[in-house]
């Protein structure tokens, strides 16, 4: 960001007294009227006596400053998967040895694709639909991104609302999933703190544990946290086709979640850019608090050893490399449309190359850091149960709502730690949800493009939020968890890989790599480093193809615990996966059909168009 330079003046010149008077006047005005008025004087980094910096793009607007963009992108990339998926993958794929292929994939695939999408959106200052002026025939890629973001936005907010529910339920003296003498518990329930609500002190917890160790080792126990999750929170039905009733507490939390998202996006990036100062940074405060508490617990070292102990022989396993590539690809949010959308609000000459490296490395560093937090607590739990860490390690909803909450019941003042943990999950989820909703809203507004729709963007945001809430209602029924996992496994899996591959090929080989390199040089003031040029043209498409092949080869029909999904539900899952990819050929055929020209080569939409810069 180029600073405003008003000229050089002597400190004793009349200009000096003018600036001092301006500052005093500003302070007096702030005291006389309101703190809000005072803040307005410093809008966009302006100081008294200087003109307020205006947006380069007066119609769409820009970020208030570059920190807002970086924090928003960090919040978008760092999500629930960093906490509940990466540590488990690392543990299952060779511990510390998994870090090697993970960072290799980050360098050769993650950062290049991240930079590609940021530069693409920033140069055009358009959302995931508008950018395809580069080659109108491939606009279906943008529609595919919208479909994927819609699916993810629907079920992602349901996960956030469940975190809200657990957060509210933690506001008590005793966590409701601590003991087994509740109406929803079964005879198979075995609590790590026994079956009494007596005031058991932390000092005699070990004595209670020793009595239970034999039972735990002899039979597969059902924990009170698992029964609370299945029988009370979800009240889960016997199958995906049996919806049962709507779980009203979950529905209420879903409404709260959508209201929060809408209010934070009520003024687009102008409001969300301010919110992320808290939502993108406070999770690190919570992670650090939980980390410090975790490593001081007995058995924490054994948990961390399970997490990091390298098994070098696994490096030769193709599955390890496939998991590493997939985790990098999905955790960075490539092909969702969010990166293009967020970058489109940047100022034209912003150094998005620097931003892409900062955000990508921060995302991966957070994943590694979260592993210490998770496995230190799980190691403590395994120590008290007298079992192996692998017996308590889990991922996904099982980690967030069963394993980790149960471990928290062993800590003194357990409701406090539970509040912190679920508050962290809420903030991590909201950071991603902000960008998903903004992606859809921006695509709609850019596509219509009238002054009225731009001026009344808030109504579009409200409409998308209401539709998202209504579409999420089925996921709050007794069969909701089955549908949530179905969407998570199919709606945003291999379709993202296909979309990303086609986008990369279109930019590099249809629009032309030389044209794009010149565009980036015009925007940044320097050409893309040769490493990135090679990755964009050859390495990244190859790795994306590898991920796609790996995903197909490793495919297994989805299950939930012992429940096997029926065939008709898998058909729906594949239909959701194909619904985003099918947008690409359908729109291409439509564009060719309605375009002028009697032969394929004469059709204008087939030929690439030179991108026009935003300013």
TrEMBL record:
GO terms for molecular function: amino acid:sodium symporter activity; metal ion binding. Na(+) binds at residues 75, 77-78, 82, 331, 363, 428. It is a multi-pass membrane protein. GO terms for cellular component: plasma membrane. It is found in: Cell membrane. Disulfide bonds join 180-189. The chain crosses the membrane at residues 69-87, 99-120, 141-168, 248-269, 281-308, 328-345, 357-382, 416-437, 458-484, 490-511, 531-555, 567-590. It comes from the Eukaryota. The keyword Transport applies. It catalyses: glycine(out) + chloride(out) + 2 Na(+)(out) = glycine(in) + chloride(in) + 2 Na(+)(in). PROSITE patterns: NA_NEUROTRAN_SYMP_1 (PS00610), NA_NEUROTRAN_SYMP_2 (PS00754), NA_NEUROTRAN_SYMP_3 (PS50267). GO terms for biological process: amino acid import across plasma membrane; neurotransmitter transport. Its main location: membrane. Keywords: Amino-acid transport, Cell membrane, Disulfide bond, Membrane, Metal-binding, Neurotransmitter transport, Sodium, Symport, Transmembrane, Transmembrane helix, Transport. Belongs to the sodium:neurotransmitter symporter (SNF) (TC 2.A.22) family. SLC6A9 subfamily. This is Transporter. It comes from Cyprinus carpio carpio. The lineage of its organism: Eukaryota, Metazoa, Chordata, Craniata, Vertebrata.
């Amino acid at each position: 960001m180029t600073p405003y330079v008003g000229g050089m003046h002597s400190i004793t010149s009349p200009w000096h007294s003018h600036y001092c008077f301006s500052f005093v006047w500003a302070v007096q005005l702030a005291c006389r009227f309101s703190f809000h008025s005072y803040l307005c004087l410093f809008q966009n980094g302006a100081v008294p006596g200087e003109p307020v910096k205006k947006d380069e793009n007066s119609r769409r607007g820009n970020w208030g400053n570059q920190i807002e963009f970086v924090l928003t992108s960090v919040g978008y990339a760092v999500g629930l998967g960093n906490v509940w998926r990466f540590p488990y993958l690392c543990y299952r794929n060779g511990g510390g040895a998994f870090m090697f292929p993970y960072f290799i994939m980050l360098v050769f695939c993650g950062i290049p694709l991240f930079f590609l999408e940021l530069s693409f959106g920033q140069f055009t200052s358009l959302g995931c639909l508008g950018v395809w002026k580069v080659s109108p025939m491939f606009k279906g890629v943008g529609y595919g991104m919208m479909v994927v973001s819609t699916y993810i936005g629907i079920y992602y907010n349901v996960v956030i609302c469940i975190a809200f529910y657990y957060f509210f339920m933690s506001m008590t003296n005793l966590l409701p999933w601590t003991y087994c003498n509740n109406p929803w518990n079964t005879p198979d329930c075995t609590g790590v703190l026994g079956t009494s609500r007596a005031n058991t002190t932390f000092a005699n917890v070990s004595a209670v544990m020793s009595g239970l160790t034999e039972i735990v080792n002899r039979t597969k126990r059902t924990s009170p946290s698992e029964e609370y999750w299945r029988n009370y929170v979800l009240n889960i039905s016997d199958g995906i086709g049996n919806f049962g009733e709507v779980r009203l507490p979950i529905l209420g939390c879903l409404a709260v979640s959508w209201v929060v998202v809408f209010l934070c996006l009520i003024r687009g990036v102008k409001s969300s850019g301010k919110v992320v100062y808290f939502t993108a940074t406070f999770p690190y405060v919570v992670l650090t608090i939980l980390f410090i508490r975790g490593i001081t617990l007995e058995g924490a070292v054994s948990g961390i050893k399970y997490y990091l102990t390298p098994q070098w022989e696994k490096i030769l396993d193709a599955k390890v490399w496939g998991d590493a590539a997939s985790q990098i690809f999905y955790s960075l949010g490539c092909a969702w449309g969010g990166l293009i959308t967020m970058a489109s609000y940047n100022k034209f000459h912003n150094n998005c190359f620097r931003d892409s490296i900062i955000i990508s490395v921060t995302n991966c560093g957070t994943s590694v850091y979260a592993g210490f937090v998770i496995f230190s607590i799980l190691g403590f739990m395994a120590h008290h149960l007298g079992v192996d860490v692998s017996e308590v390690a889990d991922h996904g909803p099982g980690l967030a709502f069963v394993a980790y909450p149960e471990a928290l019941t062993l800590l003194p003042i357990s409701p406090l730690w539970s509040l912190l943990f679920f508050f962290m999950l809420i903030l991590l989820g909201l950071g991603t949800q902000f960008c998903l909703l903004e992606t859809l809203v921006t695509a709609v507004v850019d596509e219509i493009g009238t002054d009225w729709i731009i001026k009344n963007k808030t109504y579009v945001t409200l409409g998308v939020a209401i539709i998202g809430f209504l579409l999420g209602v089925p996921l709050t029924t007794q069969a909701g968890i089955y549908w949530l996992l179905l969407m998570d496994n199919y709606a945003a899996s291999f379709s993202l890989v296909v979309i990303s591959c086609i986008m990369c090929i279109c930019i590099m080989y249809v629009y032309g790599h030389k044209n794009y390199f010149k565009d980036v040089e015009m925007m940044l003031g320097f050409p893309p480093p040769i490493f990135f040029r090679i990755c964009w043209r050859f390495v990244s498409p190859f790795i994306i193809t590898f991920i796609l092949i790996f995903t197909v080869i490793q495919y297994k029909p989805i299950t939930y615990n012992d429940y096997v999904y029926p065939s008709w539900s898998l058909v729906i899952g594949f239909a959701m996966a194909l619904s985003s990819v099918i947008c690409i050929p359908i729109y291409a055929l439509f564009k060719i059909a309605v375009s002028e020209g009697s032969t394929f080569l004469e059709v204008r939409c087939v030929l690439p168009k030179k991108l026009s810069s935003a300013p």
